[in-house]
Design goal:
Length: about 260
């Protein structure tokens, strides 16, 4: 590699590293504040749950502890992945298929560790990155698929990414599930989990205080080991995530927001 290339690389690397540090500091402070002052303890509920995850890993990062706690008590938990998790690997279909397969295997491994049986895991296989821009027909079909799952299991609780999670697939997942709940005409308690919200929302500007006002914290200390092992099984994903990002998810609390119906 010549000098110029090395320099170009460094230029690309430096601002990112700085950005990551700022994001890491901001996100750690925000989460610490939420856990210490800005949240109420969430009482563990024995209701069955259905978790909707845009990509293979969001469910474990956001809700892995909750899932493991419920499964240890034999409470039913179903997980549905909305996209195929191919990421942005370009057009090579062989590589794409391989990645999709790896992501699925990792998801099943992670969820098995958390106690979810393979028969309770669904892959809806929408193309990664397209949830917000689905064509009308495909969008309607997706909502129907979700509604069918809701009808089949009639969960007491539904977990979705936060409606302002600073990622287009995550925010679209919230909207799709919300519409599916209305279509399925079932009574559920809707809870949001945050993946990118604290990380990407720059210093409270985008993140209005009211959006984090109704935060709840669930102690997952009893199953932390399981969750960390489940996270580790997503080895193909972990490499691509910003340094420091994963750290928050290794803690002994999970943060949820209740959506008023
Ligand atoms: Zn995601």
């Amino acid at each position: 590699m010549n000098y110029k290339k090395i320099l170009q690389r460094l230029e690309k690397l430096l601002p990112n590293t700085w950005l990551y540090q700022v994001q890491y500091m901001h996100s750690s402070l925000l989460v610490r504040w939420i856990l210490r002052r800005g949240s109420m303890p969430l009482t563990f509920s024995k209701k069955s749950a259905m978790v909707f995850s845009p990509h293979q890993d969001d469910e474990t990062f956001g809700c892995g502890g909750m899932i493991a706690l419920k499964r240890e008590q034999g409470i039913p938990v179903v997980v549905a992945f909305l996209t195929d998790g191919q990421g942005s690997v370009g057009e090579d279909s062989e590589i794409k298929d391989k990645i999709i397969q790896i992501r699925k295997e990792e998801a099943v491994t992670a969820l098995n560790i958390l106690g979810v049986e393979s028969s309770e895991i669904y892959f809806l296989d929408k193309v990664d990155g397209t949830l917000r821009d689905l064509e009308a027909l495909q969008r309607q079909q997706t909502i129907e698929q979700i509604a069918e799952l809701l009808q089949k299991y009639k969960p007491g609780e539904v977990y979705v990414p936060h409606q302002k999670d600073c990622h287009k697939d995550h925010e679209a997942a919230y909207t799709l599930v919300k519409e599916a709940i209305a279509q399925a005409k079932i009574e559920v308690e809707l809870l949001e989990y945050a993946i990118w919200l604290f990380w990407r929302a720059p210093l409270f500007i985008m993140l209005k205080l009211q959006d984090i006002a109704d935060a709840y914290r669930l102690s997952i200390a009893a199953v932390q080991d399981k969750k960390n092992r489940a996270i580790a099984s997503y080895s193909s994903q972990i490499e691509g995530l910003p340094p420091g990002f994963i750290k928050r998810f290794l803690g002994s609390y999970e943060i949820f927001f209740k959506v008023e119906s």
